[in-house]
Amino acid sequence: MDNMDYIDEAIQQAGQSATITPELVKLDSDRITSESDAPEEVFLYKMCGTPCFPRGDLTTVTGPAKSGKTYFISMLMACAVRPEVMGLERIHEEPLKVLWYDTEQSRYTTKRILVDRVGRMLDGTSFPDEQFYVFNVRNRSTQERLEYLAQAIEVYRPDICIIDGIADLLEDINSGPASLEVMQRLQALAMTCHCNITSIIHLNRTGEKLNLRGWIGTVMVQKSYEVFNCDRVNRTDAFTAELTFSRRFPKNDGMCFEIDDQGLPVASEANRQGGSGQGRSGSRGIPDKKSFNQEFVDDNATDPYLPWNFHKLFAAAFGSAVMLGYDDLEQRVRELGHITRESYYKKVLSEAERLRIVRKELTKGGRIGVIMLPSS
């Protein structure tokens, strides 16, 4: 039985009378059944034990300005050659081939990062240029950048392609059609060339970790397999990199690091001991529960840093609403819980997501909303 016979039989079983068109034949080639050949996902790295950066798919790295995004991808590039860098671990023994496409910085800065930062992390006698295809295209037009990128991926066949930053591939980052076209093209390239394409973009100034800049940012959240967020710990020289969204794995707090005198990343405890919590007492960062609304505090909570009856708190915040805007929910939860610091609220929301009490959703208008999940 050939493909046409299968389609004809399926139509008859559905009780429909229809002509088998060329479009239907093409669509049928995309059909997934219980016996379809669907290869397992192949990941290039692990971060803090979580597999990430899958082949054939897209990854997004975001964060505010000067939040360590380029340093994070520098560690990623170094880990393509070294087995492990900080919390990053290369999964397979064979070194990875990296294509770094720099649209933002000067040629001098690109080389300095490659040699003085990535090279220093490699700690080798000679730089392995054969593993890196690095291009600075800041002087190219928007159209040239996109066309040259596609050719570079197709010809050099990297394991991972890093675009720093994707906004420079568009004339207008708020153009919906142009944003969709760029992301669809990158998605096709990743699948065809069996590589991971990682793109860097800034956050909007709201600070919400999935509120990426422009319409292109909205499409990136929709199309990416995972999103990483980089940030700087308040009033310190430390940076964080965390997995904030994945289609398969729960998010994790990732790693916190500082840059030592040799320009190398070293582990830091700043995000645990810095000024990001509410009412912290002592070096272990345990909040003072008395500052919270006792109606929503769980005296038997296993985590003293987050001593909440999460379901009761968020149910009270939602009331009869099915979905709330991100800012509306924040205002209600902070007022109900007597939570004074925004950074601490974000940890409360993150834990509520982990417990599957709430979930972020994109609205039809491309904004971030939060829904209350039904009790299991």
User: Helical residue percent?
Assistant: 25-40%
Spans where pLDDT lies below 50 across 5 or more residues: 272-285
Total DSSP helices: 11
End-to-end separation in angstroms reads: 46 Å
Number of strands: 18
Cα-based radius of gyration, to the nearest Å = 23 Å
Structural class: alpha/beta
Shape: globular
Mean pLDDT: 86
Strand content: 15-25%
Strand order of the largest sheet: 7-6-8-9-3-10-11-12-13
Largest sheet: 9 strands, mixed
Q: Could you state the order of secondary-structure elements as H and E?
A: HHEEEHEEEHEHEHEHEEEEHEEHEHHEE
Furnish the topology, listing elements before pairings.
Layout lengths: L2 H11 L8 H7 L14 E5 L2 E5 L3 E6 L5 H11 L4 E2 L2 E3 L7 E5 L4 H16 L9 E5 L5 H15 L3 E5 L11 H18 L2 E7 L11 H10 L2 E7 L6 E8 L5 E8 L5 E3 L2 H4 L6 E2 L4 E2 L22 H9 L4 E3 H12 L4 H13 L3 E5 L5 E5 L4
